[in-house]
Amino acid sequence: MSRYWSSLVHRLTPYVPGEQPKLPHLVKLNTNENPYPPSPRVVAAIAEEMANGGQSLRLYPDPNAELLKEAIAARYSRFDISVEQVFVGNGSDEVLALVFMALLKHDLPILFPDITYSFYPVYCSLHDIAHVAVPLTEDFRIRVDDYATANGGIIFANPNAPTGCLLSLAEIDQLLVAQPASVVIVDEAYIDFGGESAITLVNRHPNLLVVHTLSKSRSLAGLRVGYAVGHRDLIEALERVKNSFNSYPLDRLAIAGAVAAMDDQDHFEQTRQAVMRSREALGSALLQLGFVVLPSAANFLFVSHPQSDAAQLAARLRQRGIIVRHFRQPRIDQHLRITIGSDEQCATLLQALREILPGE
Q: Which of 8, 138, 259, 345 has its CA 20 to 30 A from that of 269?
């Protein structure tokens, strides 16, 4: 530790992102990336932006990313979402970081599940926000009644991460009705793989903000684009903080690619359906191998094996060039999170498990 560090740095325990190993012939099933490439329109749009020797890159991008906001609003036009209800940022992680600053820093502690996206407590430390971790049920589900207490805000991922369990729209609506004085953040990074977005509830609840990413269902983890949809008052708060921090969070290539991705609904539908089919097939195969598999509405499965230690199983898979995610955290240290890869990757994983597991 350096004596030049601020007191803030001394007390931080940073978020640890999923490993990005550089191993030959790697089967990478640890960071929930989409196994399919993005829409060809994305590649074409970025190439067009780079035309004329990349002349446009000498100019700043649109600080408001209006074209992207318009594309997102158009995507949700059936819910009467306007451009003024859309906020965009450099990946949903940046959007969430601004959410914590703009909407969740109050006198009372905020609430989120004890097993959820591990960036939430990091943001609380970074922004000095008190929080209470609300235990999931024994079967790893969010129970809305457990949030019926005074708070400075509520945030949860839906489907939850790393469990993949889905909270219904009716339950989210129930929570919003019960907590009208609290902002409720629904982090929908994985919603496109099996759930219905809470964006449909936005115009009924001024305290609801829904956060999305293009990293998963739009196959753009490398482009870093996220967005939020909510009441204009919530969006204004985010814009005020963003413009006090970084007026140009999205570059020209990210904006062009993201607009193209939002516009290509056919490609989006084809790839998400392919991931969901692979998820069901992989889940069935893992059950046959003796795994306990949680119901998942995400592009991953959360599993455990009664006869195998999770950490050892992850290590043995790694020896075969297959990377899955193991969390050394109470309650889930005997579970693995497995990203849904291509059918070929899933087949490689299953063959390795047949060779590793006892009795197979």
A: 345
Asked if residue 169 belongs to a domain, the reply is yes
Tell whether omega for the bond before 162 is within 30 degrees of 0, i.e. cis.
yes
pLDDT digits (tens, 9 = 90+) for 123-144: 999 999 999 999 999 999 999 9
Q: What is the mean pLDDT of residues 308-322?
A: 96
CA distance 351 to 300: 18
DSSP state string for 8-75: HHHH-----PPP----TT-EEESS---SSPPPHHHHHHHHHHTHHHHGGGGSPPPTT-HHHHHHHHHH
- 17 has a pLDDT exceeding 80: no
The CATH number for 187's domain is 3.40.640.10
Q: Does residue 202 sit in the same domain as residue 337?
A: no
Q: Is the pTM of this model over 0.90?
A: yes
Q: Are 286 and 324 in contact (CB under 8 A)?
A: no
Q: How many CB atoms lie within 10 A of CB 145?
A: 10
The strand pair at 184-187 and 154-157 is best described as parallel
Claim to verify: residue 197 and residue 316 sit in the same structural domain: no
